[in-house]
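Tokens in:
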């Protein structure tokens, strides 16, 4: 008895990404690009992947999409113990410190989570589920942390110009 051998040698991987330049975004022609996407493509091609699909998603769907099999991998997502219980991670490819976006001239002299915690008149906005929330809490911030429910809402054009 002989077993038919498939001649299809296509290895396909679907990558999810969020709109977060310079790590990943969609060009006007619909092509996904960015540092994380380029790196993932290089590694995948090196191991024999012949077809790569890109799926734009939101931050809140990154983990659940891998878990549900809607895509095979995603970029970017920091490794945490909680997330590691849900999905497997590669070796980290980035080491990035947190930074703040403050008013011109930094009138409140905010340069760390600790400096934020020391001021009652400072407020920190954080996207829900981001690792920065844990960093802020560990530095003593509590009530002065606000989290967005829609992580992609910061991408909308403001209704008034500054």
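Residues out:
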């Amino acid at each position: 008895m002989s077993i038919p051998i498939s001649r299809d040698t296509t290895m396909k991987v679907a990558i999810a990404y969020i709109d977060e330049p310079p790590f990943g975004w969609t060009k006007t022609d619909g092509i996904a690009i960015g540092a994380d996407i380029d790196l993932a493509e290089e590694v995948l091609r090196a191991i024999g992947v012949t077809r790569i699909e890109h799926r734009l998603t939101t931050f809140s769907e990154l983990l659940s999409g891998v878990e549900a099999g809607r895509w095979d991998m995603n970029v970017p997502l920091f490794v945490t113990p909680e997330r590691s219980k849900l999905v497997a991670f590669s070796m980290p490819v980035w080491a990035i410190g947190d930074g703040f976006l403050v008013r011109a001239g930094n009138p409140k002299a905010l340069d760390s989570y600790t400096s934020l915690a020391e001021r009652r008149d400072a407020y920190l906005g954080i996207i829900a589920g981001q690792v920065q929330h844990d960093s802020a809490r560990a530095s003593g911030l509590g009530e002065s942390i606000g989290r967005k429910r829609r992580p992609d809402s910061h991408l909308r054009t403001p209704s008034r110009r500054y």
